[in-house]
Amino acid sequence: DVYQGPTGLSDEMIPGTISELSQSGAVAFRVRFAGAVPPPNQLYWRGPVLWNFDGRRWTRLDELPSNTPVAFTPEGPPVDYSVILEPSNRLWLFALDLPATLPPRAGMTASFQLLREQPGNEAYRYEMRSYLAYRTGELTAAERFRALRIPQRGNARARALAEEWRQRDARPEALVEAALTLFREQPFYYTLTPPLLGPEIVDDFLFRTREGFCEHYANAFVFLMRAAGVPARVVTGYQGGEMNWMGGDLI
Fold this sequence. Notes:
alpha+beta; five-stranded antiparallel sheet; three-stranded antiparallel sheet; 19 strands; 24% helix; 28% strand; globular
């Protein structure tokens, strides 16, 4: 059905076009840690990073992966683990934010996404090291430009709200908190069966439907941040996992 879809990942995001999201029970990958399993709020497995927004659709940059990890400053001990990725016919490899090593025949984009040289049609095992506390340093001028870019027209009410927040307190942390407070204190609801959205998807979600799943909230949050002058992008991925106590791995 054109308005239905399963949970999972894609290299693009079009919020408001699915009115019924079914929860897939398929396994994406399994993880075995060398030490203790980090707490759930530190288990974010980075997937495609979406920079470009045309008013309706979010897409990736055409970034060429490097054969060396992107530099960053760790602020804590490393976490070592192995991943068994199920066949997906995709280039994506998953690692905890932020990966500090590269699997064989894989590269890393400037957005810290791991990509294989060839799509995987069989189970693939790789060893990883990540740091869960880190600093990535200042944005480049090109990154800042891309992370602030929104269409010239559309979603006027969201733009006005972001400007109101900015006039009140322009500090990035204050603007982030203003958006999170909006979602917490206003009657927004998480649902897998949201209403379809009209052409101005941010305004329609923020001021009319207020019902949606992860991509609805990510889309609205990143748009509000960019409109308020805070660089932002959509980082897709998987959060947490289910512990297989029989086998000792995370699914």
